[in-house]
Amino acid sequence: MANAIEILLKLRDEASAGLDNISKSTKSLGESVKASSKQMAFMGGAIVGAIGLAVKAAQEEEVGINKLNQALVLGGKSYEGEKAAIEAVVAAQQRKTNYGDGESRESLQRLISITGDYGVSLKAVSVAADLAAATGMDLNAASLLVGKALAGEVGSLSRYGIQIDAAAKPIEVLAALTKQFGGSAAAAANPVSQLKNRMGDMVETIGGALLPMVNKMA
After folding, report:
1. Phi and psi (nearest 5°) for 166?
2. Greater confidence, 35 or 163?
3. Is 100 buried (19+), middle (13-18) or exposed (0-12) by CB count in 10 A?
């Protein structure tokens, strides 16, 4: 009888141990599945977030181009008609300075809006960048200042040590500014900023490819 009881107790203990192992295995499996689900959800969220940022960047670039086009249209031109020349200027400025292509297009748009002269404004984009880099102001503010000077309001330049006759022609204004600040933007070029601008271009390209699909869904 004693032997029988001992055998039953042993069987009970082994069964208990087996059930405990099964419980632990099940719990471990559940935790693994839960962890994997979290990782997949995180990855999915990251992908969706990246797509959203890319599309947003492409939309912002599109808006900037549309605003530039509007300024050009008022002067009898269009972005499509002048695209090659404009993109050559903004691309060269991005390669040499800290200013991305979007910033340069915005600078051009502001200059055209003030002067009404596309040709002079295109030449003034690099001058505005040099003024911004030399004085520490942002490119928009520098573009506004240069635009006003080209339009005959040269008084604001006196605070930067530049005296220009109010009757000076636009080409003379640009020459005076170039003599004072020429090369400043290139000298201040930061490799990190330039890399950021190139990465921004890549994101805009990806977003541009996805934009038609997103617009269709919307």
Report:
1. -60, -20
2. 163
3. buried
Residue 85 to residue 97: CA distance in whole angstroms: 18
146 within 8 A of 124, measured Cβ to Cβ: yes
> Which of 15-19, 144-148, 162-166, 200-204 is least confident?
15-19
Contacts with 204 (C-beta within 8 Å, 6 or more apart), sequence order: 54, 57, 58, 61
Of the candidates 138, 157, 135, the residue with the CA atom closest to the CA atom of residue 146: 157
The CB density around residue 60, as the number of other CB atoms within 10 Å, is 13
Written as six digits, the tokens of 89 are 């200027």
* % of the chain with per-residue pLDDT over 70: 75
Residues composing the chain: 218
How much of the chain is helix, strand and coil, in % rounded to 5? Answer: 85, 0, 15
- Both tokens of 132, joined, read 């911004």
Q: What is the pTM of this model?
A: 0.73
